[in-house]
Input
Amino acid sequence: MKSSGMRRFLHIISLASLSVLVVSSVFKLETLSAQELPTGPNQAKPIDPNAPNVVSPTSQETGILSLQGGTKLMQEANSAVSSQNYSLALKKFQEARQVFNQLSNFYQELAGSFSGIDNRIADGHRRKALETAEMRDNSTYQLALVHRAQNQSELAVPLLVQIIRSQQPTRDLGKKAYQQLFELGFVDSPFPRPRADSATPAPTSAKPLQNK
Output
């Protein structure tokens, strides 16, 4: 009887200990579940499905890296010159020049990528590359004229030489750029050469924004 009672006593003790362990474990789980997530500026927040934080591509109608964006910069530069704000005009012409140059390079790369794969697409990109290169050279010419109007020939000359290299001396913009170099005294011979029976044209002062 004594041993039977002892075994029953030990069994009751074991059950009581097990109950304490179970209760203790449940309490710990509930405590962990009830803890608040850390907060602060570095704490990640869930993405709102109605307004996800996703960067969208630049719109071709409103983005800076587009024909419309470059044209807008040219218009702003023209307005700045009209108000004799030459520092702003220089900034806008330079920005337009960079935009058109990037566009021309990108379209040229696309044309090369599609060459031999889809020639129709390649030709379309090649035309855009030429178009944006023309606009780049025009903005470069206007930039050079503003530099010349401010008596900064040392800044105008490199731009004019770049235009001639890009456009070739026989094209209209190339001829105008060379004429500017001639008027600045950087080159000695006019181009096209005047006929023997005509006088050499006299140099004239630069007028920015005169798209002749």
